Amino acid sequence: MATATTATATATGNNNAIAKRKPVFIKVDQLKPGTQGHTLTVKVVSSKTVKVTTTNKPGRSSMLLSRPVHPTRIAECLVGDETGTIVFTARNEQVDMMAAGATVILRNAKIDMFKGSMRLAVDKWGRVEVTEPATFEVKEDNNLSLVEYELVNVVEE
């Protein structure tokens, strides 16, 4: 028991020595395809549930599953700030936070490409936090998800 206590104290002592870096908040119009690690404050313009699926496959006994069966919920939400808007793909518990009119902070967000257009997403390494209402007006006429991108292979000679 004494060893476990010492290890915990050492780990706690080391944790205090590491200084966390401050997040750099960016605006929606600064988002580019294939980038990640973004932190931004956005307002939810609209939210639409797209898909609800269960992971229970036919022919498999529920007794054999190692984890409980939960339906996967996906919603497409139009979010934005004073510089523009983008579609955010919310998954599972994120769907409940993305109510129209809510202001959220997206931490460690990434850009996914879907059918040639940009979508914003937060995976298990990121975080979605509801915050106090923002004072800015969302610029809805600059939707970055409506811009279509094409993958081009560049051959250097």
UniProtKB/TrEMBL annotation:
Residues 31-130 form the Single-stranded DNA binding protein Ssb-like OB fold domain. InterPro entries: NA-bd_OB-fold, OB_Ssb-like. Gene3D superfamilies: Nucleic acid-binding proteins. SUPFAM superfamilies: Nucleic acid-binding proteins. This is Single-stranded DNA binding protein Ssb-like OB fold domain-containing protein. It comes from Fagus sylvatica (Beechnut).
